[in-house]
Amino acid sequence: xxxxxxxxxxxxxxxxxxxxxxxxxxxxxxxxxxxxxxxxxxxxxxxxxxxxxxxxxxxxxxxxxxxxxxxxxxxxxxxxxxxxxxxxxxxxxxxxxxxxxxxxxxxxxxxxxxxxxxxxxxxxxxxxxxxxxxxxxxxxxxxxxxxxxxxxxxxxxxxxxxxxxxxxxxxxxxxxxxx
Length: 179
Description:
The protein is α/β, with parallel strands linked by helices. The chain has a single domain (27-176), classed as 3-Layer(aba) Sandwich (Rossmann fold), CATH 3.40.50. It is 36% helix and 25% strand. It has 5 helices and 7 strands, in the order αβαβαββαβαββ. The longest helix is centred in the first third of the chain and has 21 residues, at 3-23. The radius of gyration is 16 Å and the shape is globular.
């Protein structure tokens, strides 16, 4: 199996797992907890099939913006389908690569990265890129995913671009060191 088909298989398995989990009552996070609100520009980094995109779109309203970012083409295609099906006018799917995102500096007020940080191999580049994308007054919500909190905290501190503002049971809220 080549890397592309393996990657597609992994993505399809993840989507299937999420659908099964929702059948058994897995509750998605309420994005209001993160501060997603009217008029904000938010980024769902590692959006996968777009599990949080519709709620984010509704919360930011017509004057807000949602960037659904992922490194997998099937994820952005899934979000494009969701945009069309739900007529989401304020959502843009963005295909990124492992170390960069094709959006301008300081373009968002809030970034949330759910259940994906444990998969990032080069956490230094990743966290610096997120800092580049976030406004000075912005916030980063970083879920531990499948790694211990100590590992999440170590990676954030090593990046030298974030300060941990708050710890919650499943995520940490970070603010830019220069903010």
